[in-house]
TrEMBL record:
Domain (Heparinase II/III-like C-terminal): residue spans on this chain: 398-569
Gene3D superfamilies on file: 2.70.98.70, Chondroitin AC/alginate lyase
SUPFAM superfamilies: Chondroitin AC/alginate lyase
Protein name: Heparinase II/III-like C-terminal domain-containing protein
Organism: Coprobacter secundus subsp. similis
One GO cellular component term noted in the UniProt record for this chain: cell envelope
GO molecular function ontology, one term from the record: lyase activity
A matching Pfam family: Hepar_II_III_C
Localization per record: Cell envelope
Main location as per UniProt: other
Length: 616
């Protein structure tokens, strides 16, 4: 590789005019960021020492070698595609955010291949791509959707840093100028003037993604803009806890598993960059829940390797397969997380599908540590947070029974009226399911206040979840549902979730208790204290299985297997079915799903109890 260091004055043409960039100080001159001497390039996410470690791994470890082979194939493929990426194959326009994400993938893949395989063709493709990237309309002084900008800044920062020795000084100067003017200067203004809805300060995934993008950009160009780097990193660390505080105490990402992956891949990049360049994570790693969040995600993945897709998370989505696991497993000494990561990533390496996004950071951060088998013994786990999560696990074999349930906070970002919701699996089949997210572009989809338009859509309501419908009403949006107790005996272990707050308009008390018996049966018991007599209660469940009804018994059939639900209480109750369908013609269709229900109408007494056994 080229190792020349440049000291020059750059004159660049931009928009028909010329501007002057002051003398670039040699990289070897001592500079510091937040009091720590600045590393030479490469300094972001994949340092020289990381590169040495990976090259040694490739000599002895089959998993790392398979990852490397996949990287080589993907990088070679990217050499054959045009640098322009604005249209899909059908001619439709690619949304700006997806353009940014594609370049995150391309820049990581090509730049890493350049470093590991010493082949200038990859660096040349990076150079051509960077030249094209700065022709996109994304670069302006008033960005409409800053998430697009933050992800593209991530792509540019990594490419600039990893191919620093190859890129011509004229292009590096242009990159620094453009990113400073249209991104980093904007970020400083946002830190100074933005309110709590700003991307910089809000409590959602945007906060972590955007602040990480700004920090990577600042570190990439830190020798040229030392004071700017100090300001951006200081503010990023100051405001990221606005989102991360909701991981307390046990690591649950309240926005759901899809946003767990998004938030944590950027969080892991931020922490890795700080570890390498500042010597610590400046307290981010000690925030409650952060050290446990990867363990939560691993435990919440079913034996069939499917996630609990609550909130705005697509039904049927596979577990995240990417580098965040390896950062957390190495940072917090969690070999069980590393094992899960290798198993999950291996499934991608064994097929011909293209990988995406930050995937090949998995090679840069690869962790081959192995846990003791005793780490898989716990059958019931509770993870507390905005959404308390309860996990019942008969074992870790694919056929074993698995149930995961949640509390709820409908008014939080990306949430639904799903307090008390659960999914259950046996034989590797999901018998009761979550329909997941609908179309983000539906009118009023983000109007999540009580009575807001978000609640006009089927998938967002309790009508589409495995929970209760009382008096034919929706759950109360500002309400909260949470785990109250765990009771263990020789015969069973049970956990209760208090749903009273989300049903407060219709009931004085609602408790849902899940119990796992030693025989591998689940019992779901609902204690409901209605405000008035003659009310109604509907026990609701969603399934894509064939349903056979026999009064108090429902037999679900799928893939040659059967799963039985039996009503234990009340004595006169029976199952019924109805088609699961959207409320409006604008929503995504719901195809092949049935609502399995127990309906108690005109209840003569306020106190009602429904108990259902799930299993053989």
């Amino acid at each position: 590789m080229m190792k020349t260091k440049y000291i020059s004055i750059l004159l660049l043409g931009l928009l028909g005019s010329f501007f002057t960039i002051s003398s670039v100080v040699a990289e070897t001159q001592s500079k510091s960021v937040l009091g720590r001497e600045l590393r030479s390039h490469p300094r972001l996410l994949f340092t020289d020492s990381d590169e040495i470690r990976v090259n040694n791994l490739l000599k002895t470890n089959k998993f790392a070698k398979k990852l490397s082979d996949k990287l080589h194939r993907e990088a070679d493929y990217l050499l054959t595609v045009p640098v322009e990426y604005r249209f899909y194959e059908d001619g439709s326009k690619v949304p700006p955010l997806h353009i940014s994400r594609e370049y995150v993938y391309r820049m990581i893949t090509l730049s890493m291949a350049y470093r590991l395989y010493n082949d200038d063709r990859y660096a040349e493709k990076v150079k051509e791509s960077l030249e094209y990237i700065f022709t996109l309309p994304l670069w302006n002084t008033k960005p409409e959707h800053f998430l697009d900008v933050a992800e593209m800044t991530t792509a540019v920062a990594i490419a600039y840093d990893w191919t620093y020795d190859y890129l011509p000084e004229s292009l590096k100067g242009k990159i620094r100028f453009m990113v400073k003017r249209y991104v980093l200067d904007h970020a400083v203004k946002e830190y100074r003037e933005g309110d709590d809805t700003s991307w910089a300060k809000r409590r959602t995934n945007w906060n972590v993604v955007c602040n990480t993008g700004m920090s990577l950009g600042a570190l990439a160009f830190a020798e040229d803009y030392v004071g700017l780097a100090d300001t951006i990193i200081t503010n990023a660390v100051r405001y990221m806890p606005n989102c991360l505080r909701f991981f307390a105490p046990d690591g649950v990402c309240y926005e759901g598993p899809a946003y767990w992956a998004y938030t944590n891949v950027y969080l892991s990049m931020m922490m890795k960059a700080m570890d390498d360049n500042l010597g610590s994570c400046m307290g981010i790693d000690t925030l409650p829940g952060i050290s446990n969040t990867a363990r939560f995600y691993v435990d919440a993945t079913s034996p069939s390797k499917r996630i609990f897709n609550f909130g705005d998370c697509t039904e049927g989505i596979l577990p995240y397969a990417g580098p965040a696991y390896f950062y957390f497993s190495r940072k917090f000494q969690q070999p069980e997380v590393a094992r899960f990561a290798r198993e999950t990533i291996m499934s991608l390496l064994d097929n011909k599908e293209r990988t995406r996004w930050h995937f090949f950071l998995s090679l840069a951060w690869c962790d081959i540590s192995k846990p003791e088998e005793s780490t898989r013994s716990e059958k019931v786990k509770i993870y507390r947070g905005i959404n308390d999560i309860v996990i019942f696990r008969e074992g870790h074999k694919k056929d074993d029974l698995f149930l995961i349930a949640k509390g709820g906070a409908p008014d939080m970002a990306h949430q639904q009226m799903d307090a008390g919701n659960f999914i259950i699996e046996r034989y590797g089949i999901r018998w009761l399911e979550d329909l997941g997210a609908d179309n983000y572009d539906l009118p009023g989809f983000w109007d999540s206040k009580d009575g807001g338009k978000r609640w006009n859509y089927f998938r967002n309501t309790n009508y589409s979840h495995n929970t209760l419908i009382i008096n034919n009403n929706r759950q109360y949006v500002p309400g909260r549902a949470y785990v109250t107790d765990k009771v263990e005996s020789k015969k069973q272990t049970s956990v209760a979730i208090d749903l009273t707050s989300v049903y407060q308009k219709d009931a004085d008390r609602v408790i849902r208790r899940f119990s796992l018996s030693n025989k591998g049966l689940m019992i779901v018991g609902d204690s409901i204290y209605l405000k008035d007599t003659e009310g109604s209660v509907c026990w609701n469940a969603v399934t894509s299985s064939k349903v056979l009804l026999d009064g108090k018994k429902a037999v679900l059939e799928k893939d040659g297997k059967k799963f039985v639900l039996q009503i234990l209480s009340p004595k006169n109750a029976k199952f019924s079915t109805t088609e699961a369908k959207p409320f409006t013609p604008f929503e995504n269709p719901v195809t092949g799903y049935t609502l399995l229900q127990i309906r108690l109408d005109d209840c003569p007494e306020k106190e009602q109890y429904i108990e259902v056994q799930l299993g053989e």
